[in-house]
Every structure is written in C-alpha cells, then in structure tokens.
Amino acid sequence: MSGARTPVGPTEREAAKQTITISFAGFNRAWAAWIGDRLERRGHRVVYQRWDSPAEVPLVDLLRDLTLAKGRILIVVSEWYFQLGPRTHDEWNTALREIVAPDPTRFAAVSVTTSQLPSATTVLGAVELNNMGAEEAERRVMDRLDLPADPVPESAEGARQGPRFPAAMPEVWGGVPRRNTRFTGREPLLNDAYHLLQGAEPGAGVVTLHGMSGVGKTQLAAEYVYRFGSEYDVVWWVNAEKRVTYRRRLAELAPQLGLSTGAEYGERLRAVRDSLRRGDPYGRWLLILDGADEPDQIWDLLPNGPGHVLITSRNPEWTEHNSKLLEVPVYERYESVAFIRRRAPRLTEPEADLLAHALEDLPLLLDQTAGWLNDSDLSVREYIALLEGGIDQDVVKVSADFPLAFQTAWSILLNKLKDTVPESVDLLRLCTFFAPGFIPVRLLKEMPHDDLPEQIAGLVNDPLLWNKAINQLRQYSVVRLESHEATLDEAVSSGESLYLHRMVHQIVHKDMPDQDRKEFTDVVRRALAAADPRRPTDPDLWSGYAEIVPHLKYADVLQTDDPNVQRLVFNCLRYMYFSGEYAAGIKLGERAMDAWRQLLGETHPRVWELTYHYTNLLRAVGDYGRTEAIARAAVEHLREERGAQDLEYLRAVGGLAADLRGLARYDEALEVGEWSLTAYRELLGEQDSRTLNAQNNLGVSLRLLGRYDAALDMDRRTLEARRQLLRARHPWTMYSELSYAIDLRLLGRYAEAESIQVKNVREHRLVMGHDNPQTLLAEHNLALCLYRSGERDTARQLFARVLERGERVLGEMNPWFLVFAVSQSCFAREHGDIDQAREVSESVVARYEVMLTDGHPFLAGARANQALILRNVGERDHAHALLEQALAEMTEAVGENHPWSLGCAINAASLRNLVGDTESAASLTRDTATRAIEVLGRTHPLTLSARIAHAADLRGLRERRQAEKVEQEALTDLEQTLGAQHIHTISARSRNRPFWDFEPQTT
Asked: What are the DSSP calls for 202-226, one per residue?
C-alpha cells in the first residue's frame, strides 16, 4: 500500500519540533491516541482531528478544509475512515486526486487495516502498522513523518502513563462483547463520557448511560471500551441486572488480578473491591455495569478508587448514588440513515430516511429490520405499508418504552425467521422463559432429554441444527453471543452465553401460541430443576443458585405441582436465607405462599414446608410479630392434623420458639425449646442434625435469659456434635463455635473467647465470604473480644468496618445491623466521637421504638446506653431520669436478677451519685453486688464492676474503712481474674467509676 515519497535528509530530520495534525475516524481513536502520545513525548505538538463526513457536504470541500491545519497531516487509514458518510470509493478517488495529489508532502498516513481501500489512497504513502509490535510500529510512524526515532526517555515513577499500544490487550480483559463493526455515530456521547470520567476526582469516576430499551446503551458502552480501552490496565464487563449475578461476576475478577483468595465468591468479591479501591496491582481500571436497572440493589457494591465505572441503565436514579448521568436518545436522523445504509447497502438515502422515520430512529429496531430487509425483495414502501396497516389496535404498545410500530415490525421479522429456519423461532421463544439478558441455554443441553417436545428434542439433539438456529438469530441481531474467550464455533456449539435484549424478550414472550407457551414453560422449569445443586447450605454451591434464581419468575415455577420444581423453590429460599439475600427471599416467599395456597390448598404439606422457609426469612429481618402469628397457626394446625410426634410439627414449634425469643418472651421460648429438644431426641436420637438444631436454639434461649454457664455447656456440646456429624467448616458448625465464643466472652473469659473467635472469623471469611451476615456477626464478636482485652485500635477499625458492611448488606432496620450499631455507639462514646455516638444511639432507640413492643428489654437497654451519652455531654438530669426509666423497664421485662438488670442498676447508681443522691446509690450498688454474686459469681466482670461501684458509693458516704475493704477485695479478685495489667483492673485501681454497656443478643 505504500506509495512513492520524496526522501528527507538527516538535517531536515533534526529540524525543530513540529506540529502534526492527526486525522482519524472515531473507530480508530485508540491508534490516534497512541501515535499522538509517542509524538508528544518527543516534544512535538499534536492536534487531534476526528474525521467526520456529513453526507450533505462534498468530500472535496471536507478534504480542502483539512489542508487548513497547521503542519503535517497524518491520516490513520482504515475502512472506517473511508466509509463515513457513507461515501463510495469513486468519491474518494476523485477527492484524493484533486486535493492530495498536487501537494503530497502535506500528507502522511499509517494504515491499520487489511481491507480493500480506494485505489487513490496510494498517494498518501501509508505505512502498515498491522501485525507488529509497538517498537517497530513506533519506528515506522517516526520514519513516515521524517522524524528521529530515538528512544523516548523513561517516565518518572508516578508520572502519567500513556495509552497502550492498540494491538496489545489490557493486562486484564473480560466479558466485553465483540466490537460491533456496524457501530454508527454517537460521537458527542462518547466524548462526553470520556471527559466526565477523565475529569472526575479519584473515587468519583462513575458515569451512567441512561435511556429507554433498545436505544443502544450496551453498544455505546462496548464502543467506549474499544475506543478508550488502551488507556486502562483492567477492563471488566459485568452483567448487573441482578445483585447475585453482579456479585458473582465481579468476584471472578479476583484471580485475574492475581489476588490470593479462597474459592468462595464472597471472599473474592471483598478482595476485588479492596484491590480496586487501593489501585493495587492496577490503578487504571474500567468496570462496566451493563443493565443496572435497579441501583438500590447494587449501588453499595460499587468499587471506588482511582479507576472508572461506566453503567448502562434505564433508571435515572443513579444520580442519587454519585453518578453523572448521560442521556442516550434515539439516533439523530443522519445517524439512522448512515446506519441503515451500512446495514442494508441496497437501500438509497431517501429510502433509509423513510425507514428511519417509520421506525422512530430506534437503533435496535433499525438494526433488526434493516438486516433482513436487505435480504428481502420487499421494498421500503411496501414494508412501511405493512407497518401502517398491521398494528393491532388492542395492543398498541407492549410497554411505555417501545415505539408504536415495534410489535408489527416484530411480527414481520418472526415470519421471515419462520420461513427460513423455523427452529430459530422455537429457540427464541424458549429463551423467553429465562430472564432477559444472559440466557444459560447450556442448561437445556445438560437436562435429561426424555419426554421433551418433539421440536425441542430435535433442536438440542442435533448440533448442526442448533448452530444453524443460533446463527440465524445472530444474523438478524436478535441475540448476541457472549462466549468471549471461546472461538466463534465453540461459542455457537456450547451456546453458553446467549444474550437476549429485554425489549426483544418481552415482545416475543407475548406473541406465541398457547400450546408452545405451555410446553416451553415446562421445558425451562425442568431445566432449572435439573440444574439444582441440591445443597443450599453449602457456600461452594451458592454460585449455582445465584445463576438459577433470576430465572424462577420467568419460568413461572410457582404454577406447577412438579415436586422437583417445588424442591428447587425450597432450596432457592434456603440459599437466600443462608447467603443473606433476605429481601429477594421474602419477595419469592410471598409470591410462593399466594400461588401455592391457590394451587395446592391452604393445608397442603408443601404449604407448611414453604411456611417454614418463608418465616425464617421474615425473622431474619426482625418481623417477629408477623412470624409469631404465622408460626402459631401452623403449630396448631399441624398438632391437630398430625400429632405432637410429627417432624413437620416439631419444625414449626422450633420456629415459634424463635418468634418468642424475638418478642422477648424468653421463659416461654425456653419451655417450648426444652420440650422440642426432648421430642427430637426421642424421635431421631442425639446425633441427628435436626436434634442439634433444636439444641443450638435452646442455647440461644439460655443466653438471652442470662444463664451464661448453662448456655456455654449447651453450645459446647452442640459444637462437638456438629464437628462429628457435619464438618468443621460447615456453616452450622461455625455458628456453634461463634456461639461458644460469645458465651465465653459474656462470662468474662476474654482471652479464651478471643483465641477461638480469631480462628472462627478467619474460617467464616474463607467459607462464607466477607459480606455474609453470619461472617459479620463473627467479626462483631471478635471486635468485642478485642475491646474487652484492651486492643482498642484494632477493635475500632473492626467495629467501623462491620457497621459499614452491615448497613450495605442488611439495611438499617435489620436486627443484626442494630446490634452492630449499638456496639459502635458505645465504643465511640468512650474512645471516639461523642457526637457520632449520640447520633447512632438516637437512631437505634428510634428504630427499636418502631420495631419492638413497649417494654422490650432491647429498647430499655438502648435507652440505658443513651443515658450514658447524655451523662458524658453534661445532661445529668435527663440522663438520670432516662436511666431510672430504663432500670424499671428492664427489671419488669427480665427480672431483677438478669445480668441486663444488674448492669442497668450499676449505671443508675452512678447517676444517683452524680446528682447527689449518695445514700440511694450506695443502697442500690450494695443490693446489686449481692445479687450479682448469687447469679454470676464473685469474679464475674459485672459482679466486680458492682463491687467497685459500691466502694465508690461508700466513700461518698464517708464510710472510708468499709470502702477500702470492699475496694481492696474487688481489686484482688480483678487481678486474679483478668490480670494486674488488664484495662479494667487499671481503671478500677485508678478509681474510675465502672459502667455497663447493654449488648443486644441475636435471637
């Protein structure tokens, strides 16, 4: 392709720094950016001129305007450069001969294509840059511009990195769709997105491409990647339509970044987000979130850091989550015309304009229609007549997003597909019983093929027919292939990653014969059931459930009595419970309850089993009043129907006991739990997992009653049995170990508790992931262990991290999040920001007032904590009144000998002393210390606090000798129990008055 040019001597090569104008098609921006960077590093001035070729402006005039640029003009030659407009080769040959040939030294060119170009481009003398490395390409560019090709000095550490050589992929690249070689227009949007991201502060580089369905948001994002991807070291494309799939896909980035993690995707997800935040090992990263239409579901998982996030969404609410919004409209008419003429070369410009007008410039519809119209004998006017005459007035629009003509256009396209490869229509319709977006059609091939409908059996059993059907759908842009790392043939044959646009999904799903609908629904239900991993408690299998869950709704799995499909629903509910996807699980549970009561009847056994899973999810978000009513009805019915020795009845009884704990009816819960455990032992024996679950729950009741020694013994036996029966790293075993460590801490055995909890946290992170609710609970207990041991800095960091992740994962009204918030507030009160402590404490009290009934001990305890903050900020009278109220309410709720009541009494005595009521304070601490010794023993930390407080009150009464005796005995016990250098011992020795923090327990 190179043409003759006049050689330039060495003297001229060493001339002063030059100005070079680089003219390029937007499609080839990466080449222009790289060439410009190599020139600028040598001190030359570079002007970038993106070539545009409006059809209404003569090409000769456009080229003549280009010669007005200062200095040499370097053209990046490709088929794109010559197609814009579009222009014919004859037009280009004429323009090149007229403008370039008379003065060829003004122009230089590099070629980045192997396609056939207009013959007159030889006058540009383009040098090839294909199929070579960066060094040789750079040498050729400099030689073509008659510039020295001396090595560029190495950039200083920390200096701006230049664009990557375009032929070299970023270090990490994944999930990006193949480049659309028919991409047209959108230049202002691409440039706006680029400048918004590049100009953003670190951590704020988030841009959302927002627009209606079919407008081309995904294609625009993909084109952005190919144009600007050379400026990044990591480019990662994520399907963000569902939280579960987003988490899984982002977690898959971990090994690509070289991060050392376990196999569980929760752990990988945390490692990825941390790596991106730190910019280590890569600071230049681009994350694309495609189809993120529900920002509330995933905004909390958005990474921040030095990189950029590009989102495609129909939802403008991303602006509420620190994203800049770029509206993606339908095509401008000139873009529509240019696109149609490239997609359907047989159409003239006026015909393209007519078609664009009829289809309202919607890119998706233009793409699909122009594609098959080009292969059809139908004229544009005949097609438009079909559109105008074929609309069913009863179904004007499928949704508010869709243009008026869409349904009719699709009817025409489907008829075309039926006439050519009818199997492609079957496959397309079958796909609409999966969720829109990524369709796991491999599940159809992996399922048993017995009793499949004839047309589907023929399709999945014949690889050639399967490939033919997929290729036909691809040809008309109905589906995309997304197996990016596979070859095209491999991708087609595996069919693992078909992508179906939601707009296409909706119209095809609506327009189908009833018989097909019934058969195809049944096929997809069975495919999903066959893919059930069958062990929802196993974190290693959660990724399988995460893939299945989005499709349940579209396969209408709740409208069948197939036991395998119903078992899948149960397992998905259990997966969502164990993995912490509570909101999604409750939504599925509600729909299932409504559907199955109608389908199966109110008292069908499957309905009772569903009730159990549904109420578990409701309990996880603290809706105890509602679950208690549901559970009590189930218990009464099952007892009457099946008797007291039925396992389904016993399971319902266990749920009722959990509700009683949530409602603070702890004595009732204990009584029910003891009866239940006895029944399980008689029916199943000591070593059945259901017996151990009942035993675990009894331990929870004992702990809530303040019977910590008994709870410790119960949890130890459960832990040992679960290690034998299950495995050491089963979630239930790890939960038993966590419970055991909590018991030890509540008994004041801090060193033992911390030793166990460090290991327990490590295993939770490894097995269940950092954001699993149970992991957060384990980390919270570790923070409390560290705090009680005096490791305040480490505890501070862990408290803050648990609270931040708890808010993201669980939400502000979740019972476990409120447990974390209580601890954060107490810590901040003593060792941090008193204003933050007050704000968090007030929010906890307010939420408990909404969630809990009057007289609930958690509400009384939260008010007791709030009173200590008021004391610290000088509001003594208010604090005194609030503590007296809290003490009365706590005593009423759990009795005067409960550790929570004893703790409230220690705090109330402190305020009585502070306001001058010394005698009453001394009387209260004397009584509290006496009862604490009886309940907890002389050396329990709470008892020691009461004894130290009583000594202080005796000093206030000037009973110094008695005060000295009480204090010395308490100090001796403190030193023997916790050690002479423990923070509690040192504080008591310094005569700092002790206080008690209320800590709500999980129920």
From this structure: TT--EEEEE--TTS-HHHHHHHHHH
CA 733 to chain centre: 27
pLDDT tens string 389-409: 543 333 223 333 344 456 666
Tokens 């408290």 locate to: 799
Instruction: Please write down the long-range contacts of 644-650, taking CB distance under 8 Å and 24 or more positions apart.
Output: 644/679, 645/679, 645/682, 645/683, 647/683, 647/684, 647/690, 648/605, 648/608, 648/609, 650/676, 650/679, 650/680, 650/683, 650/690, 650/694
Where does 442-531 have alpha helices with state H? 442-446, 454-461, 463-475, 488-494, 502-510, 514-530
Q: Considering only CA atoms, which of 828, 734, 844, 842 is closest in space to residue 781?
A: 734
Q: What are the backbone dihedrals phi and psi of residue 308, each rounded to the nearest 5 degrees, phi first?
A: -130, 150
What letter would DSSP give residue 16? S
- 659-686: per-residue pLDDT in tens? 999 999 999 999 999 999 999 999 999 9
Between strands 498-500 and 437-439, the pairing is antiparallel
For residue 313, give the nearest of 293, 297, 286, 328 by alpha carbon.
Answer: 293
C-alpha separations of 264 from 732, 771, 809 in Å: 17, 11, 17
Greatest C-alpha distance within the chain: 114
Please provide the size of the chain in residues. Answer: 1003
Contacts of 15 (CB under 8 A, 6+ apart): none
Cα–Cα distance list, 642 to 246, 532, 634 (Å): 44, 30, 11
Cross-sheet strand order for the sheet of 437-439? 437-439, 498-500, 479-481
pTM, entire model: 0.65
For residue 723, give every residue at least 6 positions away whose Cβ sits within 8 Å of its Cβ, in sequence order, or none.
Answer: 733
Per DSSP, helices labelled H in 157-294 are: 187-198, 217-228, 243-251, 253-256, 265-278
For 875-923, what is each residue's pLDDT tens digit? 999 999 999 999 999 999 999 999 999 999 999 999 999 988 999 999 9
Alpha-carbon dihedral 792, 793, 794, 799, rounded to 10 degrees: 80
| Single-letter amino acid, residue 628 | E
| DSSP H or E run through 583 | helix 582-600
